[in-house]
């Protein structure tokens, strides 16, 4: 039986995971823990915003910061705050962009991916999550 959360947010999860995989491809030394740190920082950032607090001070290494920046760009797009130049296969802009998500929805998606990172890291080692997810995002 399929996971109802994944069914509802599949495109969002995939968008964020593509951003993370691109970061792994750019930074060959990156590990799952860098991704975990980036996701935790994003969750803290969006929870602070949701609760009307200032964004937390982040101390991320270069790999986690790159993952944070790439994933945040996608989250901002999915929140309806950032324009991303998208083209369809025929080179034209898409007719229907996705409806903006709420902060709670983005936080839930980030948490879901964080749980996946932790699970696949346990299963496959330092790059277990990346090795798992990249097979679906070619």
What does this molecule look like?
The chain is built from five helices and no strands. The longest helix has 23 residues, at 4-26. It is 63% helix and 0% strand. The model has no long low-confidence stretch (mean pLDDT 89).
Our estimate of the beta-strand percent is under 5%
Query: How far is the first residue's CA from the last residue's CA?
Result: 25 Å
Structural class: mainly alpha
Q: How many domains comprise the coordinates?
A: 1
Count of DSSP strands: 0
Residue-averaged pLDDT: 89
Biggest beta sheet attributes: none
Provide the low-confidence segments as ranges.
none
Rg calculated over all Cα atoms? 15 Å
Globally, the shape reads: globular
Could you spell the SSE succession in H and E letters? HHHHH
Helix content: 55-70%
* Individual helix count: 5
Strands, helices and their partners?
Layout: H1 4-26, H2 32-50, H3 62-78, H4 103-124, H5 128-133
Spell out the key features of this protein.
mainly alpha; 5 helices; globular
Structure summarized in a few sentences:
By secondary structure, this protein is mainly alpha-helical. The chain is 63% helix and 0% strand.
């Amino acid at each position: 039986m399929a996971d109802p959360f994944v069914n509802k947010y599949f495109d969002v999860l995939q968008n964020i995971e593509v951003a993370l995989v691109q970061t792994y491809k750019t930074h060959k030394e990156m590990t799952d823990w860098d991704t975990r740190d980036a996701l935790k920082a994003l969750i803290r950032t969006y929870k602070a915003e949701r609760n009307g607090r200032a964004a937390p001070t982040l101390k991320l290494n270069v790999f986690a910061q790159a993952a944070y920046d790439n994933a945040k760009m996608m989250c901002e797009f999915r929140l309806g705050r950032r324009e991303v130049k998208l083209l369809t296969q025929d080179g034209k802009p898409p007719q229907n962009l996705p409806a903006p998500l709420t902060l709670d929805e983005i936080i839930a998606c980030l948490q879901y991916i964080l749980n996946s990172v932790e699970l696949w890291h346990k299963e496959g080692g330092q790059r277990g999550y990346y090795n798992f997810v990249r097979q679906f995002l070619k």
